[in-house]
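Quiz preparation item.
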């Protein structure tokens, strides 16, 4: 069996569910390419009582035919009749399962959303299968999976019919952390420094499929050019495929993503509606939730503000990279990344991408500060006074009456705080203290790649967090 990197909690849960004496309907969901199918297959060694996957085709009859072929395979019965609809298909599945000698009947239905073609009775069949047969048996474990998270949420989680509340376990599969990426590179014989691994993460995030495309014979820069800027690059045209696979009505979701892509610090819900012209309704709220469930965007509160002041920010690394360097790139330079190293555009992107890496690893920052056991909330803050324009991207508001104000800086060498930046830091802290009216102790934290160069200005920093801490 192939070694599974990370996923410790998810594997433990799946195995506990398998060993339990209760019927289980588990749904594994998350971003496309994050490894949902791989997780289920490898956890159980492909030892399913029944397995079938939808096909990327909108023809109901073709979906039924694919399911029928799986029925034939697992029954070893060539005389099975072709089902006319999904009720008949699930009826045949029940007959196969009742004949099985497996102590636990493990059923894995992959790409559920593809099975549910327009005007299909698939959800009705699935509902009947679970409610009418499977849910009454202690020897059944049903696992559903789909890359179309919006479909999962609408048709399964928020189902208003017989499937309402029937899912026993929701397993949200997140992208790899830096530590898990490092495990992957080591397991696959890829010798990369942590700086190189960080650069890869800033480009494609912790998406297992993306990092699996890296060629260990090439440098990081060569890999980026090969995957993104070569005309045949495997990730050059991933953008539309990504959103069309994740969401029905993908164009509306892309409107939101593109609006957020133009505003690095994020937009409120009302601002998103103003920019995209989407309706001020529950449908737009649902789309924002779908994007959040897929780890494409994050929703975060502003310090001391109400829920209405929450901001949404684009956080998917691939999408951020696409908007910055691929979408409007008329330059057909297949060696673009190598030729433009250390240019202002790439340096500016590096700073912002590093901020997003830090935000994705806030637990590591808390651990480095020695406050993992202290209740804390993560906020952002922006001054309302136009003349000050002060902004703090990460605030850790702690239950022990301390507030950490975190500054993130990417550099190739130890970061130097000069006189100008020192004044800027002091201004931010003063502005935050004055406007927030907080009585808590303020401590400045610098999160950098290689630490700080000690000088007359570095003493104002209470704590340092480095790139290595993000890998822990």
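Solution:
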């Amino acid at each position: 069996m192939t070694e599974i990197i990370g996923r410790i909690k998810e594997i433990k849960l799946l195995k506990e569910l398998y060993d339990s004496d209760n019927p289980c309907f588990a749904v594994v969901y998350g971003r496309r390419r994050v490894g949902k199918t791989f997780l289920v297959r490898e956890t159980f060694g492909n030892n399913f009582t029944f397995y079938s996957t939808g096909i990327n085709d909108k023809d109901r009859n073709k979906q039924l035919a694919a399911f029928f072929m799986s029925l034939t395979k697992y029954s070893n019965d060539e005389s099975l009749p072709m089902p006319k609809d999904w009720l008949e298909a699930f009826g045949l599945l029940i007959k196969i399962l009742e004949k099985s000698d497996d102590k636990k009947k493990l059923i894995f239905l992959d790409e559920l959303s593809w099975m549910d073609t327009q005007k299909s009775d698939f959800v009705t069949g699935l509902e009947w299968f679970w409610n009418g047969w499977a849910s009454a048996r202690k020897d059944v474990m049903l696992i559903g999976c789909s890359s179309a998270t919006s479909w999962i949420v609408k048709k399964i989680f928020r189902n208003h019919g017989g499937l309402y509340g029937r899912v026993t376990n929701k397993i949200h599969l997140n992208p790899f952390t830096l530590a898990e990426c490092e495990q992957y590179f080591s397991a696959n014989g890829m010798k990369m420094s942590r700086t190189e691994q960080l650069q890869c993460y800033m480009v494609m995030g912790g998406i297992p499929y993306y990092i699996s495309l890296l060629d260990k014979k090439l440098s990081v820069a060569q890999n980026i050019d090969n995957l993104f800027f070569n005309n045949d690059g495997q990730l050059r045209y991933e953008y539309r495929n990504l959103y069309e696979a994740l969401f029905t009505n993908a164009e509306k979701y892309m409107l939101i993503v593109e609006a957020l892509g133009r505003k690095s610090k994020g937009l409120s819900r009302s601002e998103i509606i103003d920019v995209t012209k989407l309706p001020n309704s529950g449908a737009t709220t649902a789309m924002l939730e779908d994007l959040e469930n897929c780890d494409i965007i994050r929703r975060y509160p502003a310090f001391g503000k109400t829920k209405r002041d929450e901001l949404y920010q684009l956080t998917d690394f691939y999408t951020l990279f696409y908007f910055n360097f691929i979408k409007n790139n008329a330059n057909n330079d297949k060696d673009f990344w190598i030729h433009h190293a250390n240019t202002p555009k790439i340096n500016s992107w590096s700073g912002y991408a590093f901020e997003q890496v830090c935000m994705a690893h806030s637990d590591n920052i808390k651990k480095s500060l020695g406050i993992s056991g202290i209740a804390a909330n993560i906020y952002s803050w922006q001054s309302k006074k136009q003349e000050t324009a002060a902004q703090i991207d990460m605030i850790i508001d702690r239950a022990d009456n301390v507030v950490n104000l975190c500054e993130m800086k990417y550099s190739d060498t130890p970061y130097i705080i000069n006189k100008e930046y020192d004044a800027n830091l002091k201004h931010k802290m003063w502005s935050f203290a004055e406007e927030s009216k907080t009585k808590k102790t303020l401590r400045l934290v610098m999160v950098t790649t290689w630490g700080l160069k000690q000088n007359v200005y570095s003493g104002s920093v209470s704590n340092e967090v480095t790139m290595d801490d993000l890998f822990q």
